[in-house]
């Protein structure tokens, strides 16, 4: 049934960072779903982290995920927060229009304005920290540990070694660049603005100025001509694909890894739809259907990734894990194949490590090859 810590039962891992793991958990008393971040307890003993957590715990802002609990065991620290049931923003951003991106982008700007007014900054803002809530609003996830030295260098990180509020502006500019171009910024390489409107180019350029003091302020970002006219952010919503209850039952019966969801749901009257839609759909997992037998699709999918220079390791029940080095970063994808009927097969891709945009790119490439 899963590990239990402080009255929270672990259900499924939805994120792995350099210093932590994030899981869906269920509160044993009320059956509500939360996200719980697990990390070495020594990090929780850092006085700066404690100070940030003390401030974050008091937050009541629509664009931040609320911190519910902070726990410590003999070996680990835990931060329990609101569960963002929509999943990662970049799981849905591949078909956003520039207008929708404008609506999307103003929300983290509002969040950063509030954060900086509280004397705090993130320092390593990146796409994985931008989540979608159940009501489709954008939220910044927990950043209490971001003040600590980072073991990996994100392509969205500002160039200065001493991070500050100005570093968040730089990172936000690169996130905007990725949202519009569907490209990941490359270290020490100029940004490729092909097909981008001049207004967006001007804003991104001002936000990603290499000299921190020359960067545009967040207040000026919000008043920028490209974003002009988008004032009421609370009413802006995204469209997320809904899954019918009958399909959810089918998903559970087919995906062996989700058996724990069914058990917990029946035992504790948990909202099963929220459990399945979050990890399966939102957290960098997606699928497509092929009109062919499961054996044929499995072999073809694996061969297509091998041909694309992926190293594939076979797992049980028609599943394999594929690894590739993308700009010195490892993208790891788990691929599972399920037979709907003798002539129809579903292929599910899970992102285990790596950048969301790289994951979306390989998924779309394989899906397109099967469609040809």
From TrEMBL:
Residues 8-227 form the Protein kinase domain. Pfam families: Pkinase. It catalyses: L-seryl-[protein] + ATP = O-phospho-L-seryl-[protein] + ADP + H(+); L-threonyl-[protein] + ATP = O-phospho-L-threonyl-[protein] + ADP + H(+). GO terms for biological process: signal transduction. Keywords: ATP-binding, Kinase, Nucleotide-binding, Serine/threonine-protein kinase, Transferase. InterPro entries: Kinase-like_dom_sf (IPR011009), Prot_kinase_dom (IPR000719). Its EC number is 2.7.11.1. One of its GO terms (molecular function) is protein serine/threonine kinase activity. SMART domains: S_TKc. This is non-specific serine/threonine protein kinase.
